[in-house]
Amino acid sequence: MHLVRSVEVPRHSVARLEPVIGGERLARLVRAADQFRRQLAGRTVWNVSSTAVGGGVAEQLYVLLGYVQDLGIPVRWSVITGDAAFFVTTKRLHNQIHGDAAGGPLSRADDDHYAEMLAANAAELLGQIRPGDLVLLHDPQTAGLAEALAGAGARVTWRSHIGVDWENHATRAGWGFLRPYLAAAERFVFSRRAYVPSWVPGEKVAIIPPSIDPGSPKNQDLDEATVRSILATIGVLDGAAPGPATFVRDDDSTGIVTRPAAVTGDGRPGPGDPLVVQVSRWDRLKDMAGVMRGFAEYVAPACGGYLVLAGPEVAGVSDDPEGAAVLADCLRQWRGLPAAVRARILLVTLPVEDVDENAAMVNALQRHAAVITQKSLAEGFGLTVAEGMWKGRPVIGSAIGGIIDQIAVGTGILLPDPRDLEAFGAAVRGLLEDPGEADRLGRAAHARVRADYVGDLHLLRYADLFGALATRG
């Protein structure tokens, strides 16, 4: 039995970026890759994460590593294994670094088990990673690998996809737990400068925001008939599919959405009914329950439309043990709503067995939405915001974390207080009642993502970081 699993990623042609980014940006990426390949001198770049499905980290790795392969750079992706107790600990770390003390302080026994589990994973990785290889460890689940890999001669960088721009006792506890494990890391990557803990030397830090891939199943263009067919197939829209629910897979083959979603709802919207959509993991900090209350209390009584809260099958996301509890709480609250309101709210869990098919489902939901929300209580970056903006939809997001960076003035709506449900409801109503303003914001949002959040810029920043490491003695 192996603890570490290798993930195979299909090659993606970087040429598919050219219609979006233009020839000049594409040529710059190819030149940077040529230089980096020479700097690597036969060594390998490794990514290590805790899951290959569910969540933004896995989705970005599928995309970015496909392009890296096409650029001729040797790259590998390994996923570690943890037991239930390990993932309970790392989920509490995730919450702490977001300023939430849920679950209470971590004990010495938690620390010992975390270290033991990662020592077992490190033993397998050391049979594959060679001295001089560049290793990118992702998030708290992998921090405990740094010392063993660096001690064997690997050049270790730790990448945090989470964080907040303030401190409290919970954030100090979370970073205090991780700090000893990260002492051996040579470089650190954060999505925002404000997330960097004070104990990390500035010269060791790179700021690299996430990105979208315009050609991926989650973001590729879909015509209206295909969108309706996908949503009818998964059970979100009323009526039969008007045609085939097809999309282009990451390997450029044709995919067909065939799996239904698990949909809880007394009614179904018709093709012409406006949808308010939030797509997130079932995580308390994404505040799906708050979105539902805000819609039920301040939107449904005043105007038409349906709310769709969509997330992954909770059993399919192995590194998030809270997902089932959050979904259960949402279901409980949904059952307590008045019948007329309950009939306009759908809770949807999307199958994750086929990563591309799951992405196509999300794409269709976002493209059919009249309004997209991301009312998180804490957010490392919130790439679902950029995904919604790319589709030309108006996005209402909390004025926290990386959402602030994405929604510039005139490209969406920022909520100063994500717990203010009345303000949230007013923002949703305003966009549903003014389609012209919604369209204007959506077009500006699309242009914003094209300029700042496409994958070529993401890869260039990593080339700068790893190129410097590869050429150091």
SSE blueprint and pairings:
Elements (H helix, E strand, L loop, with lengths): L4 E2 L11 H23 L4 E5 L6 H15 L4 E5 L4 H14 L10 H18 L8 E5 L7 H6 L3 E6 L8 H10 L8 E4 L14 E3 L16 H11 L11 E3 L5 E3 L5 E3 L10 E5 L8 H11 L7 E7 L10 H13 L3 H4 L2 E6 L4 H14 L2 E4 L8 H8 L4 E4 L2 H6 L6 E3 L5 H13 L1 H18 L2 H17 L2
Helix pairs in contact: 1-16, 3-4, 3-6, 7-11, 8-14, 12-15
Q: Which keywords apply here?
A:
globular, 473 residues, seven-stranded mixed beta sheet, 14% strand, alpha/beta, single chain, 16 helices
Largest sheet features:
7 strands, mixed
Strand content: 5-15%
Helical/strand content category: alpha/beta
Characterize the overall form. globular
Strand order in the sheet with the most strands: 1-3-2-4-5-6-7
Radius of gyration: 22 Å
Number of helices, counting only DSSP H or I runs of 4 residues or more: 16
N- and C-termini, Cα separation: 37 Å
Protein model, in words:
- The structure is a single chain.
- The chain has 473 residues and is an alpha/beta fold.
- 42% of the residues lie in helices and 14% in strands.
- The protein contains 16 helices and 16 strands.
- It has helices at 18-40, 56-70, 84-97, 108-125, 146-151, 169-178, 224-234, 288-298, 323-335, 339-342, 355-368, 383-390, 401-406, 421-433, 435-452, 455-471, and strands spanning 5-6, 45-49, 75-79, 134-138, 155-160, 187-190, 205-207, 246-248, 254-256, 262-264, 275-279, 306-312, 345-350, 371-374, 395-398, 413-415.
- The strands form 3 sheets. It has a 7-stranded mixed beta sheet with strand order 1-3-2-4-5-6-7. Strands 10-13-12-11-14-15-16 form a 7-stranded mixed beta sheet, sandwiched between helices. It has a two-stranded antiparallel sheet with strand order 8-9.
- α3 (84-97) crosses α6, α8 (288-298) crosses α14 (421-433) and α12 crosses α15.
- The longest helix is centred in the N-terminal third of the chain and has 23 residues, at 18-40.
